[in-house]
Write a structure and sequence with these properties.
The complex is a heterodimer of chains A (about 170) and B (about 550). Chain A has about 170 residues and is an alpha/beta fold. Helix content of chain A is about 20%, strand content about 20%. Chain A has a single domain, classed as 3-Layer(aba) Sandwich (Rossmann fold), CATH 3.40.50. The longest helix of chain A has 11 residues. The chains are: A alpha/beta (about 170), B alpha+beta (about 550). At the A-B interface, helix 3 and helix 4 of A face helix 1, helix 2, helix 5, helix 6 and helix 9 of B.
Chain lengths: ~170, ~550
Amino acid sequence: MPKFIKDGAVIENTWTLLAKPEGDAAAVAVPVGQVIVPLSVWLAQKAQLQLRQDVGVWLDSDETAAQLGEDATSLPLIAVNFPVFTDGRAFSTARLLRERYGFKGELRAIGNFIRDQLCYLRRCGVNAFAFAREDINLEQAIKSLGDFTEYYQSSVDQPLPLFRRRA
Amino acid sequence: MYIYDDYDHQILRERVAQFRDQTARFLAGELKPEEFLPLRLQNGLYIQRLAPMLRINVPYGMINSTQLRRLAHIARHYDKGYCHVTTRQNIQFNWPDLTEVPDILAELAEVQMHGTQSSGNCVRNTTSDQFAGVAEDEIIDPRPYCEIIRQWSTFHPEFAFLPRKFKIAVTGSEQDRAAVQVHDIGLQLVLNDAGEVGFKVYVGGGLGRTPVIGVAIREFLPEEDLLSYLEAILRIYNLYGRRDNKFKARIKILVRAMTPEVFAQEVEAEWQHLKGGYSKLTRAEIERAKSFFTQPPYEILDVPAAQAQLDTLAAEQPAFGKWLQRNVRGHKIPGYAAVTLSLKRTGVAPGDITDTQLEIIANLADEFSFSEARTTHEQNIVLADVKKTDLFALWQKAKQAGFATPNIGTITDIIACPGGDFCSLANAKSIPIAEAIQRQFDDLDYVYDLGDIDLNISGCMNACGHHHIGHIGILGVDKKGEEFYQVQLGGSAGNDTSLGEVLGPSFSAEDMPSVIQKLVDVYVENRTREELFIDTYRRIGATPFKERVYAKVH
């Protein structure tokens, strides 16, 4: 089973990622077990999927936190996708999920982000990191979570900007 | 000037360590070139035509003598003995060795300098008025707010991978010297009817291949809401700015596509969520920022005596008088003056400065201006706090060092990007064109008679030389592998910001001096007594200029 980083440790990934459907999202068969479904599938099958405790939702970079809205509060896992690592929309989406929609579960980065984005992602509220590439040395990558230990601005991990904390 | 505390030092040290590790991983082949690219850019490192280029921030143009000496050391030790002042008040080194860049950044960090976010698709160095704090027409000193923005934008976790680069400028004077209307966000400090401090907020301005003048989306933003409002703008841009086409990715395109009204509504809606949050500035923080920009210990001077002495010296030595006229301006403190050291001597690339010259400026700053200097977006250096009684001594030393060319604001005070001699983006060279025009206008009395003329040159449509806002703008273009130059007239920065209009077909490099001469001739023949070049152009329009320049030779 592939591994990923969660809360600063390398652990096994037990969730299956369901790809975006080609056709009708309502017709997609969602497998049993822990599964992360695309937003379109979630929206189309919410009535059934909401009854399960093992369904998460992933947002592509052109999908917004607002589209998920209040649903975020009840989900165990939300993933934000990086089609390419330079597409920085997930940073805003992650903050919105945490700060505006009250999401408390696992917030997972998926796709083609890079190790050097881990610290900023953590600051935006992401606590799990599943790289698309399988050749990443996860034990090494964990180090980048702590690239910075002090920050100027307000964010999810430290809501008080430095100017409110400066001695 | 702002002084780092332990927090600032710690954050910057962590950045240097991060980049040292990233560089090592890149050199070891663990980090792919395309992955290293934005990381090195956000530390100021470009790969240029001939070598890497390292851009160092000079936050809102403020620099002290210790920093100047460190830049001199870096120019000497790691580079070829010179560097370049950019059109965004920064400093560029043209020949650093990639493997040594972490060491350079470590040396800079010791003197509170860095290349953080000086390039890349992130919030860049905030620029401002080079006469901030000393200008006679200043309403509010913009520098404390620039520093607050600098800290907020530095390593902002949400906005490091924006659709495109993002530039903010702040002005606090009646006369806008920071060109705020051609920035992604332009902030103009204002007082409301109750006497409270706030900002008029412009958004969506910019030069580049689609020049646009910014639109005001808010007439009065209370100062304490500065950061939450900036955050709202950046978030809307980060989420909705185009990412499919790099040439349509700047915020100006988004503002235009949404319409400024809708964009403003989106920002307002987002801001309602943010304005009450922790980013709201406290009175204590505003006061803390202001405490770094208090007045230096000015002396009480005998102003009439100082002025009389200057008048006498100016009469005895006309060259000194010329310099006083062009390179020295008034100061809010009686008996003091702000001096511009010209980096526009003919034969030297505009904005270039050697290691020795940097040290001389450091010495001049120590001796005459409370150890501080400023870089300007016109690519000169300002000593902002000089006693009038010291001006003659300063002039003599500046002259010896090659900084006293009395041409500030004239047609030879040319703004130019590094162009095709250095930059891999350029279509054409800028520096030789600047020099040829300076040689054409080598008669100083004639140049003075022409008065203020902004002549700006860019080597490509990215417009680093701000050609759209020059009274005369020159753009290098490539025609089947040959370098040609398009001329624009009527651009202007400042309160009456306007974009130049293309005159007509482009010219070869060798034609450029005579083309500029003809444009100037048309001005001289048509001007009224009070008119500057831009005024005459606005009155008579482009046609007389076109007719002269494109007249058939018989």
